[in-house]
Amino acid sequence: QVQLVESGGGLVQTxxxxxxxxxxxxxxxxxxxMGWYRxxxxxxxxxVARISSDGRTDYADSVKDRFxxxxxxxxxxxxxxxxxxxxxxxxxxxxxxNVITSAFRRTDYWxxxxxxxxxx
Length: 120
Hints:
Elements: E1 2-8, E2 10-13, E3 18-26, E4 28-39, E5 46-51, E6 57-59, E7 67-72, E8 77-82, E9 91-101, E10 106-110, E11 114-119
Parallel strand pairs: 2-11
Antiparallel strand pairs: 1-3, 3-8, 4-5, 4-9, 5-6, 7-8, 9-10, 9-11
């Protein structure tokens, strides 16, 4: 069993910054890609950013140059630094990890989500 636990998020004004983090724990053999998705009310879940185990990153066009994803492989954590936040960034942010478990099964795991609200 693998668990992803997110922290951070909250309420911030337009132009402000927030950092969300996620820690993976449990029966982990190896983690490949880690990432963040978000879902706003009435909208589909969308990719925000992802990072490979060797540090290659990919961002949604809407957050490029404002958000930075990073990870600590030794601690099995991934973080998302969000700067210059806009009201349209308001959403529930979900952490995800592509994990090979101790039983050598490869599965995508998701966190429970953390709310980010940007006030105008």
